[in-house]
Amino acid sequence: MGVDGRECPELRLIARTPGGVRPCRRLACMSGQSLFARLEPLLPRVRRPVQYVGGEGNSIVKPWDAAAVRWALMYPDAYEVGLPNQGLQILYEILNEQPDVLAERTYSVWPDLEALLREHGLPQFTVDGHRPVGDFDVLGVSFSTELGYTNMLTALDLAGIPLYAERRGESDPLVVAGGHAAFNPEPIAGFVDAVVLGDGEQAVLGITDVIRAWKAAGAPGGRTELLARLARRRLVYVPAFYDVAYRPDGRIQAVTANRDDIPARPTKHTLSDLDSWPYPKAPLVPLAETVHERMSVEIFRGCTRGCRFCQAGMITRPVRERNIETIGAMVEAGLRATGFNEVGLLSLSSADHTEIGEIATGLADRYDGGNVSLSLPSTRVDAFNVTLANEFSRNGRRSGLTFAPEGGSERLRKVINKMVSAEDLVRTVSTAYAHGWRQVKLYFMCGLPTETDQDVLEIADLAREVIRAGRRASGHRDIRCTVSIGGFVPKPHTPFQWVGQASHEVTDARLKLLRDTVRADKEIARAVGFRYHDGRPGIIEGLLARGDRRVGAVIERVWREGGRFDGWNEHFSFERWESACAAELEPLGVSLDWFTTRERDEREVLAWDHLDAGLDRDWLWADWQEALRETELDDCRWTPCYDCGVCPTMGTDTQIGPTGRSLLPVVGVSAGSPVVASRVEVAEVVESADSAESAGAGSGAGDGPAGDVRLDPAAVGSGTPA
Ligand code: B12
Ligand code: SF4
């Protein structure tokens, strides 16, 4: 834990080489002091220095000494990917709203700055206050993908925090993982102190309360007692409190709690009333270029369409919609707070919101003639979505429409439960092309369970049909269809968690066959763009997704051998992972193949079975069997419950409209010309929607953040690094 305002009592060790140690030069510095004066001279020597200076619109720097609990929040990827991350922005704002809590952000530094930090003995720092990450009470790391694990090790090492939780001392931060990949944190179990499963809004506040009370009481019992308190309150999963036993054949025998005061199965957190948590109210406005430069509003969480490959859909059940009024208020408040001119309506399947038509028309009317454009991430294949897209593009560009049939053949789409027929697709794209769209993008996966070459070749047939239909409907020949294909990776807590992953050789051979077939077809060769990645990164993602604690040594070895930014093609090295697997796994009688391409049977204990995502294991297995029988399953939003287990286990229920209400009228901002408002004004817009909501329909706000404290405007980031 950070030391409050006193001299650093111990030598914080900063590694000159990864994993090596040497004493930090800032031995006499005060905890929480800004390192900016020492960092600044290094910045002209690195690529895109602006990513390290902080001071973004709506960023916050609070006084260090006034905080009882301090969080460093990390997205373990480059700033340009990490900054727009909604999950982290939400937690940042919720934590900073508490008067005695401080939260700052940190992202992965690129290898050029990593080398300079090591050379100059500077640690991993936050971009808000440029404070050493090692000084904070908690380092919260968000994993939306497993390929960020090596980047976490770089950050720990640069921060002077021991890589392994068991070697950390009382002055080290608690390292807490969250995000979708953390639903099987076993490969990183040794590196993290605790894991939050599921929604983080209430969890971070609960963790903060426990830490605050424990610190105030003089930190009784040290780290272990703190972790035990967090585990007993069902806030986190603490891997060190669970032992794993293996069978002689390498499979897991059992995972058992080694204390009797903690749950045998830690459970996920589920926010039950999204309207009470309208975050982020004031999204960050980056100074440097990022992957998404728009304001995103999450219109619902969870998805019950039941696509069998989709971990996100399974682990975020049940569906919880935000109502149309809150969405309207959030869009308005967010635009005022940021000055963005694009709004993305975010969710796992945005067109499924029960009032999406009204939302689309309402927003399009509200901003008609101005410079605010609207977008949906990707859409289901049906003609209604083209109508939606037409509404959304009233003010913007008609760049292209994206649909995701995922499987090439109808048979395969039944296996994965993606209920789309070729006729649906052709009808939908015909409507799109007839409405003036010229570019359609289709997403597919390769390597799906039971897939054959023929299934993949049918992607070419679909593309041909789409081009023909487009030419017919539009009367033009110059239309395009882009086929984008990703390798399928089986994920925990899905019906496909037992399947053998297709080897990268199989995936690559099928994709080559498909590419050659499209190229050889003169009718469509020029009209079809073909995008795919080679299958090898998918195999490593598969290892990390379904690995167990033995995979931790592989991650460490890869990192020591230079593994960084594994999600980036130019940095990823399959050979490095392959050789680390050979060195670390094979002596234990397991291997890369064993973890990835091997099919598991029903009785095998899976590395994540002791973690409760709410889904009934028997239901998942039954659904896997239904997949093999090519049987589809409807969406439980509109049919009777299928007993997946989530609602009774989590004490939640599907929350959907329609509410019959409308978007709140806009007050005080001229349509299409958003102005940057202060954080307090924004809170007022959202809160006025909240009160309209509770006055109108009595939907309780009792679930809301404790105290919902407004910020002191003086504490809001001024744009100058502290
Ligand atoms: C916008 C988006 C993107 C954007 C922006 C990503 C970003 N930096 O945020 C872009 C286009 C760049 C992108 C890229 C990718 N994405 Co994406 N993306 C999404 C999308 C549509 C929204 C994410 C989001 O904002 N969710 C809402 C927020 C509130 O949820 P959240 O982030 O999970 O956070 C909550 C909790 O998880 C928790 N939490 C999160 N972190 C932490 C940390 C701590 C300490 C705690 C306590 C709690 C906590 O608290 C938060 C609030 O409740 C999701 C789908 C979806 N609707 O979730 C896919 C999704 C996250 N992406 C996905 C994937 C696969 C990718 C890519 C790997 C794709 C690729 N092959 O390149 C890359 C990875 C990029 C990277 N390095 O991270 C998958 C993840 C799948 C999985 N884990 O099984 C998803 C779920 C889509 C899907 N259905 O497949 N993505
Ligand atoms: S428990 Fe029933 S209603 Fe709830 S998500 Fe599962 S199938 Fe749907």
Automatic annotation (TrEMBL):
Keywords: Oxidoreductase. Gene3D superfamilies: tm_1862 like domain. Residues 688-722 are annotated as: Disordered. Residues 289-531 form the Radical SAM core domain. Its EC number is 1.8.-.-. Pfam families: Radical_SAM, Radical_SAM_N2. GO terms for molecular function: iron-sulfur cluster binding; oxidoreductase activity. This is Fe-S oxidoreductase. The lineage of its organism: Bacteria, Bacillati, Actinomycetota, Actinomycetes, Frankiales.
